User: Which sequence fits this backbone?
C-alpha cells in the first residue's frame, strides 16, 4: 500500500516537471536559435549606421546680375571734324502758338473804322469778286476784295480794295466789272488811308455824283 502512494506521488511530480519543461521550451528555448533573415536585416542596418553621411548636394548658385551696358564714346571721325556746325532750323511760328494775322496793319485799321463808324452795316473781309458778279459771265480775274460793305440784308453795296502797289492791271479790270454790276468800288492806298470823315463821305457819296 505504501509503495502505491509513493508511485502516485512520483507520477504526479513527473507530470508537473514535464509540463514545466514544455512551458520553458515554448517561451525560452527558441530565443537563441539562428534566424538568417533577421541577421541579414541587422547587418544592413549596421552598415547604414557606420557609413559616413553623404555630402549634401550643392545648392544652385544665383546668377550674378549682368553689368549695365556702358556707352562707349568713340573718337570723332575726321569727316565729322571737317563738317561745319549747322544751327538748328528756325521753328515754325505755328508750333509756338503764334499764327500769322489774317489782316495786315492797313486792313486792320480799315476794318476797325468800318465797324466803329458804321455799326448797322455788315462788313465782310477777303471776298472773292466772282461771288459778286453774274455767274454766267466770263470768269473774272481772281482778285479778292479786301472788304465788302453790305446793306442790312447782307446784299453787297460797296467794294473796297487796299492798294499795296501802284499799278495792278487785274485790279483795274476787276473794278470795271464790279461797276458794271452797279457796285460802288473804292480803292485806298495802304500808305495813305483816308481819314474817318473822308472814308464815310466816299462810302455814302451819291451814285449820281
Assistant:
Amino acid at each position: 500500500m505504501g509503495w502505491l502512494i509513493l508511485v502516485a506521488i512520483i507520477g504526479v511530480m513527473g507530470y508537473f516537471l514535464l509540463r514545466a519543461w514544455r512551458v520553458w521550451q515554448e517561451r525560452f528555448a527558441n530565443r537563441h536559435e539562428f534566424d538568417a533573415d533577421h541577421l541579414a536585416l541587422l547587418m544592413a542596418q549596421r552598415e547604414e549606421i557606420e557609413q559616413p553621411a553623404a555630402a549634401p548636394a550643392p545648392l544652385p548658385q544665383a546668377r550674378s546680375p549682368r553689368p549695365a551696358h556702358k556707352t562707349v564714346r568713340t573718337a570723332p571721325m575726321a569727316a565729322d571734324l571737317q563738317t561745319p556746325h549747322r544751327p538748328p532750323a528756325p521753328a515754325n511760328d505755328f508750333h509756338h502758338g503764334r499764327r500769322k494775322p489774317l489782316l495786315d496793319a492797313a486792313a486792320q485799321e480799315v476794318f476797325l473804322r468800318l465797324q466803329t463808324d458804321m455799326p448797322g452795316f455788315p462788313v465782310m473781309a477777303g471776298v472773292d469778286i466772282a461771288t459778286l458778279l453774274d455767274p454766267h459771265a466770263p470768269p473774272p480775274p481772281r482778285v479778292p476784295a479786301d472788304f465788302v460793305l453790305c446793306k442790312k440784308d447782307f446784299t453787297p453795296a460797296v467794294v473796297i480794295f487796299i492798294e499795296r502797289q501802284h499799278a495792278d492791271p487785274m485790279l483795274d479790270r476787276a473794278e470795271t466789272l464790279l461797276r458794271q454790276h452797279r457796285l460802288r468800288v473804292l480803292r485806298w492806298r495802304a500808305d495813305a488811308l483816308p481819314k474817318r470823315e473822308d472814308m464815310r463821305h466816299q462810302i455814302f457819296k451819291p451814285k449820281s455824283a
